[in-house]
Design a protein that fits this description.
Blueprint: H1 41-50, H2 79-104, H3 113-121, E1 134-141, E2 150-153, E3 158-161, E4 172-175, E5 179-182, E6 193-194, E7 196-197, E8 204-208, E9 219-225, E10 231-244, E11 249-254, E12 276-277, E13 280-281, H4 287-295, E14 297-299, H5 300-310, H6 314-323, E15 329-330, E16 334-343, H7 357-363, E17 371-372, E18 383-384, E19 389-391, E20 403-408, E21 411-427, E22 430-440, E23 464-472, E24 477-478, E25 489-491, E26 504-510, E27 518-531, E28 534-539, E29 553-555, E30 558-563, E31 565-573, E32 583-585, E33 593-595, E34 602-604, E35 607-610, E36 613-617, E37 630-635, E38 641-645, E39 661-667, E40 680-683, E41 690-694, H8 708-721, H9 728-736, E42 741-750, E43 755-763, H10 774-786, E44 792-797, E45 799-811, H11 817-831, E46 843-844, H12 845-853, E47 858-868, E48 883-884, E49 890-891, E50 903-904, E51 907-920
Parallel strand pairs: 7-15, 36-37, 43-44, 45-51
Antiparallel strand pairs: 1-30, 1-41, 2-5, 3-4, 3-40, 4-30, 6-24, 8-11, 9-10, 9-16, 10-11, 12-13, 14-27, 16-23, 17-18, 19-22, 20-21, 20-23, 21-22, 25-28, 26-27, 26-29, 27-28, 31-39, 32-38, 33-34, 35-36, 35-39, 37-38, 42-43, 45-47, 46-48, 49-50
Helix pairs in contact: 1-2, 3-8, 8-9
Length: 926
């Protein structure tokens, strides 16, 4: 190829050169195409015509003569000129194809997929076939009596999506492994209540029911034992009532003491409570033995081991637990309300000083066998010989073993009623129908007849009796606190046996700080502990959102699934031992590749068998021995998959047989599998005992077959890393070439002790790469396999950020505003989209104005607003910024429960496509 022009030559335009000289071709670096043509039709024709008079005869008598010099015609209809025109056309066509061939010989300029594919193969790189999407499926087991509580869901169970909009096609996903689903795992709930611990000093109690007919000022009794174990009764007066009809409880707060929180009484038992004796574990399946097991704090592994030692089944224990009512409270405290209030007989008698002398003498007659009267001037209680106390009126419904509260200002006494009857009595100069009560002390000791058993400080006129006690049932304490973002531990609302460490569960609930918004996330179990009939879970990582506790439901019947439908034992054809490099085409493309911890980031789902014997896939047949049972897979431009076998020199030939070549593989790949949450609901074949299925979270991690632009960028990366990660750039190149990853950026950060490589990534669809996804785990494992183990590495998904803008635009009057506006919006969306922006790349006002000015029809631009959105979704001030920054990966200055990681990933600043405000500006600037 001609060299570049000499920079010292002052005549570089070529105007002084003869038209007969060959044109000078120069290609500056970095161009998308090569300029390789030596001329076009007009130049070829001009040069041939110019040389007509210079052509000399080579031999003969007229050697050296120029006979064509006499041809002076130059009209296009002359046969000689027409022949030159035809050959100029031939030269034009040859030069065009020569230029195309030259362009196809370089990776940067090749336009044909075959060219890029062959150039990539020259360095051992195959165009990535794409990768299938991955999600999790949550199954619901039928809980009817006609189906078992447990069922096996086999690997390969197919679930089809229901298209969300017109034009979409249903996609099939398959479970990746066998697992046992259980009915009691369908809808686990977080702990919603706790047994309340009520003491004699409690200042509030939760009571069952909302129709207790209580009011402020009502007298209540707490009956129990004091610290010495003696029976004790404490009077309480109702201060406030809080009724919760949804949870069917009434919270009663008492007077005179500050509120204190009611605490849970759940406590771990010692190992001795399990009943493990020197002679061995008791295998008798009795309530006491099961209760002893449940009362201990046990890991799931220890729990299962003890079940095995005792010979008990998990379902038997679960059945026993579900028949038991979780106690609403612990301890021996009973709560009573006193429904009736009455004065003491004689409270309305005339004062002693107002009586006549004869009457006073009669009341002072202590020898009267019917009366024993305390002096009325002392306002003492009066006791009749047939009862311990008389209330002023009959009160029906008083029963023995109920309670009497005698109350005076500043003090009270409580007695147990041992007898109750209506009697007509006379005394203090009055007579009436009264309620006679026989009493005992709280411990049941009867009162003696002597006055020493009667407290003379309780006066008739100053004492009030409260009777007709009714016991109220205690309610469990409702747990109303939200589940917080970052929480890793959760207590379930009961015993849940059989869960496994590492098992995925789907948590769904209403977001606590966004009413009405339902969220779902997949969590993996780290530890499982049973304590007091409750199961506590610990997740490998904290919750991404905060949830309202009473809306949360957890499904543990969860299995990973990937996009693609299995084609089982498809017959491809017959082997022919006489034919080298036999090839077969799979009948249902595209071949599914799933995410894997390999250098490429994916692996094929294809299994080939010849005469029933499995052959292994290999990247290349080169270097294999003549009998190697290997094959290679090549993907055509049309996404067809071809299986190619050896030639007997590099890899073994196929043995001759009749339809002895079969394939089992899955069909389906690419971004079409990134279906939304809740779309996978159609079971193609319903497993026995399964009622329904759904994907709680959206599918992710998919990537379409590699495009030419991506191949140009990714193919050299494999040569740069050579499957080994050493430099900082290697981390970025390795991650970017990994199947399913759309962008990657590696930076070195300091954690206070050592340097850490932080790799920020995004998936091929512009989405987040969650730590629970197969894509994240496989990328992490692949990097760990290829990197220096002494260098610390962290991977984080990018943080998307958005900016909004408003501008006035003056257009050329020859254009229509609607057309210019549409072009502007499309250009802005494309220029500042995920595909075009880099991690940490800022946006400037000058850049936006320049992009807008490059749109046809734009004359002037007045940018009025340019701002980013803060974390709350509101515009960040100022509303017009010259530079909008995007942060690179950096140390986290203030880790929180919601964001506990040590490093913050890089930000990707994109335009909000729904917030591009453009208005037409008039010539006057308005």
């Amino acid at each position: 190829m001609p060299e570049a022009p000499d920079s010292t030559d002052l005549s570089t335009c070529g105007c002084c050169e003869s038209s007969l000289e060959e044109p000078l071709v120069y290609n500056p670096p970095g161009q998308p195409t090569l300029n390789y043509r030596i001329g076009q039709h007009s130049a070829f024709l001009r040069r041939m015509i110019a040389r007509l008079g210079q052509q000399e005869l080579p031999d003969g008598e007229q050697a050296g003569s120029r006979p064509l010099a006499k041809l002076t015609t130059r009209t296009a209809d002359d046969p000689a000129i027409a022949m030159l025109d035809a050959w100029a056309t031939v030269a034009h066509v040859l030069a065009f194809y020569q230029e195309r061939i030259a362009n196809e010989g370089y990776l940067r300029t090749a336009t044909e997929r075959r060219s890029v594919l062959e150039l990539a193969r020259a360095i051992g790189y195959e165009l990535a076939p794409g990768v299938a999407a991955q999600t999790f499926l949550a199954f619901t087991v039928d809980e009817s009596d006609q189906t078992p509580d447990e069922t096996t869901i086999s690997a390969g169970t197919q679930v089809q999506s229901i298209p969300a909009k017109e034009g979409e096609l249903p996609q099939t996903f398959e479970t990746a492994a066998d697992f046992e689903a259980k009915a009691w795992w369908n809808a686990l709930r977080p702990q919603l209540s706790l047994p309340q611990e009520v003491t004699l000093n409690s200042t509030q109690v939760f009571l069952r029911s909302t129709s207790l007919n209580l009011a402020a000022g009502d007298r209540m009794l707490l009956v129990g034992k004091d610290a010495n174990g003696d029976p004790t009764v404490v009077r309480k007066r109702v201060r406030t009532l809080e009724v919760n009809r949804d949870l069917d409880y009434t919270l009663v707060t008492f007077e005179d003491e500050p509120n204190v929180e009611v605490t849970s009484a759940l406590a771990s038992s010692s190992a001795a409570a399990l009943g493990v004796q020197s002679a061995g574990y008791s295998t008798n399946f009795s309530g006491s033995n099961v209760d002893a097991l449940l009362s201990a704090s046990l890991s799931e592994g220890r729990y299962q081991a003890l079940l095995g030692m005792a010979g008990w089944s998990a379902s038997d224990v679960l059945d026993y637990v579900t028949t038991k009512t979780v106690p609403a409270s612990v301890g021996d405290i009973e709560v009573y309300v006193l429904r009736e209030k009455a004065a003491i007989f004689g409270h309305n008698a005339p004062h002693y000083s107002t009586l006549s002398s004869d009457a006073k003498t009669a009341f002072d007659d202590w020898d009267n066998p019917d009366w024993q009267v305390w002096h009325d001037s002392l306002e003492a209680l009066t006791y009749y010989v047939n009862a311990d106390i008389y209330l002023e009126r009959p009160i029906p419904g008083i029963v023995t073993q109920s309670w009497l509260l005698l109350e005076r200002i500043g003090d009270y006494q409580v007695y147990q009623i041992t007898g109750a009857s209506e009697q007509s009595i006379a005394g203090f100069g009055i007579s009436a129908k009264a309620m006679a009560l026989d009493l005992a002390k709280p411990d049941g000791t009867p009162l003696n007849d002597n006055l020493t058993d009667k407290d003379s400080s309780y006066k008739v006129r100053r004492t009030t009796g409260f009777v007709k006690s009714e016991q109220l049932l205690l309610a469990a304490v409702p747990v109303t606190s939200d589940l917080l973002a970052g929480d890793t531990e959760l207590i379930l609302n009961g015993l849940v046996p059989g869960l496994q460490i590492g098992q995925p569960v789907a948590l769904t609930g209403e977001q606590a700080d966004a009413a009405g918004v339902l969220r779902s996330e997949i969590k993996f179990l780290d530890t499982i502990t049973h304590n007091g009939g409750f199961t506590a879970l610990k997740f490998t990582e904290g919750l991404a959102f905060a949830y309202k506790r009473d809306t949360v439901v957890i499904n543990a019947n969860v299995a990973p699934a990937t996009h693609g439908e299995t084609q089982l034992d498809e017959v491809l054809g017959s082997g022919d031992g006489a034919q080298p490099n036999q090839r077969f085409k799979l009948k249902k493309p595209p071949l599914t590749y799933v995410s894997a911890a390999t250098v490429s980031g994916s692996e094929s789902t294809l299994t080939m068998r010849v005469n029933g014997v499995a052959w292994q896939q290999t990247p290349t047949l080169y270097g294999l021995n003549a009998k190697a049972r290997n094959y290679v897979v090549r993907i055509s431009d049309g996404a067809d998959a071809y299986v190619i076998f050896g030639d007997g020199k590099s890899g073994g030939r196929l043995p001759t047989g009749q339809e002895n070549v079969t394939a089992t593989y899955r069909s389906g790949i690419g971004l079409a599998g990134d279906v939304g949450a809740g779309s996978l609901t159609l079971l193609k074949k319903r497993p026995f005992g399964v009622r329904s299925v759904i994907n709680p979270t959206e599918a992710s991690g998919a990537e379409d077959p590699e495009t030419l632009d991506d191949a140009r960028q990714n193919a050299p990366l494999t040569v740069l890393t050579l499957e080994r990660i050493v430099s900082l750039q290697d981390y970025e190149d390795f991650a970017r070439a990994f199947a399913g990853i759309g962008k990657a950026k590696a930076v070195a950060l300091w954690n206070g002790e050592t340097e850490v490589v932080h790799v920020t990534v995004a998936d091929a669809n512009g989405g987040m790469v969650t730590t629970t996804s197969d894509l994240y785990k496989n990328l992490r494992d692949a990097i760990n396999d290829a990197r220096d183990p002494l260098r610390a590495v962290e991977i984080g998904s990018f943080q998307p950020r958005f900016f909004e803008m408003e501008a006035k635009v003056l257009i050329d009057p020859a254009y229509r505003w609607e057309d210019v506006k549409s072009s502007l919006e499309a250009t802005l969306k494309e220029t500042f989209s995920f595909e075009q922006r880099a991690f940490g790349q800022p946006v400037t006002a000058a850049e936006i104005i320049n992009v807008m000015h490059n749109v046809a029809g734009v004359t002037a631009v007045d940018l009025e607003e340019l701002y980013t959105l803060d974390t709350s979704g509101l515009p960040a001030l100022p509303l017009l910024s010259s530079v909008l920054s995007a942060q690179p990966a950096r140390p986290n200055p203030a880790p929180t429960a919601e964001n506990p990681q040590r490093f913050l990933p890089a930000e990707l600043l994109q335009i909000n496509p729904a917030a591009i405000t453009l208005t037409e500006m008039t010539a006057g600037g308005q």
